[in-house]
Amino acid sequence: MTDVRDIPEDMQALLDAAVDAVILIDHEGRMLVVNRSAERLFGYGAPDLVGRNVSMLMPEPHRREHDGYIARYVATGEARVIGRGREVIAVRRDGTTFPAQLSVGVVRGADPPRFAGFVRDLSEEHARDAEMRLTQERLAQVARFASMGELAAGIAHELNQPLAAIATYAQACDRLLAGPSPTLPPVQEALRQIADQALRAGEVIRRLRHLVSDRKTEQRREDLGAVVREAAELAARDVRQHDVTLDLALAGDALPADVDRVQIQQVVLNLLRNAMEALGDLPPERRTIVLGTRVVAPGQAEIVVRDQGHGVRENVALHLFEPFFTTKAEGTGLGLAISRTIARAHGGTLGFRNLAPCGVEFFLRLPLVESVT
């Protein structure tokens, strides 16, 4: 078979119906048959390809290596590319290159052997991966900044009490030493300095807390369903790694809200990761997470993450959203605290409900921009 016209019309029609490019080559690497998808993908017509070496569709150095793969297989049966799939770089007629998934199989019963190559363009997939990586980097950046805010708020809370005590006692010493019979003037001056420095530290902390509480978000009109659906796509790899089933249960109508898309997705991803970790010791049939949206009151909607795990114990529930509280061996205790901070910045709330007979549902309640009934 050296010409595309030598194969039956129904076989060519079947090949042309394939979404991926299909190329049949002989034992010397010459193309015998190509389908329509291959013509569109590479920018050639079938007459331009049939009879020529398939390596013309590859950039260097793959072009030089390809014939060697075929010759080695014919001589030894050793497979490098044949019988396997791998990602390669392909080249179009205009010289542009693109990433492609290449799978090559041996056509049974052909002597000398023939090979069928299947080529799928990965350009859009790579573009989506790049966009997803960028989004994940933005999410990580949000997490870092939010963590810093929670850390600063926690430090401020812990330090204000001793600083206030230092200021009080230092001022009392100052008054005593300023009485009718003052003594130890150097001590008096030192105590004044202690008071001044303590008050100054308190002012710095006050400003830091003010800065954290007033940090502006980049809020825009978004459909919560679209935000959640995109978060589910971002979590797809973690879902596969944890062998978890993720079910989407989105409200049928659009849920418009003024939100920072990245921050809301950060909350959703944090809740999803917590749920996946909570299901780790359960049998596969119970490792299901429901991620959904729903209207709960006029002008109010919830994003919910529900699992069938062990729920939240009463002694844990009291401290669940506190910074640095964690039940994980390697946890930081900041995830839920960060998520609560984000919820409050959006005028919303973050909470949970234990379910009967098992499981827990975390919810992020947010105001909608218009009443939905």
Q: How big a fraction of the residues is strand? A: 15-25%
CATH homologous superfamily of the largest domain, by name? Histidine kinase-like ATPase, C-terminal domain
CATH topology of the largest domain: Heat Shock Protein 90
Parts with pLDDT < 50 across at least 5 consecutive residues: 1-5
The share of residues in helices is 40-55%
| Structural domain tally | 3
- Under CATH at level 1, the class of the largest domain stands as Alpha Beta
Structural class: alpha+beta
CATH architecture of the largest domain: 2-Layer Sandwich
Largest beta sheet, briefly?
Answer: 5 strands, antiparallel
Multimeric organization: single chain
Features:
single chain, elongated, Beta-Lactamase, 12 strands, disordered N terminus, 373 residues, Heat Shock Protein 90, 3 domains, Helix Hairpins, 5-stranded mixed beta sheet, alpha+beta
Give a structural overview.
By secondary structure, this protein is of the alpha+beta class. It folds into three domains: 4-121, PAS domain (Beta-Lactamase, 2-Layer Sandwich); 126-213, Orthogonal Bundle (Helix Hairpins), CATH 1.10.287.130; 220-367, Histidine kinase-like ATPase, C-terminal domain (Heat Shock Protein 90, 2-Layer Sandwich), CATH 3.30.565.10. 45% of the residues lie in helices and 21% in strands. A five-stranded antiparallel β-sheet has the order 2-1-5-4-3. Strands 7-9-10-12-11 form a five-stranded mixed β-sheet. A hairpin with a 5-residue loop joins strand 1 and strand 2.
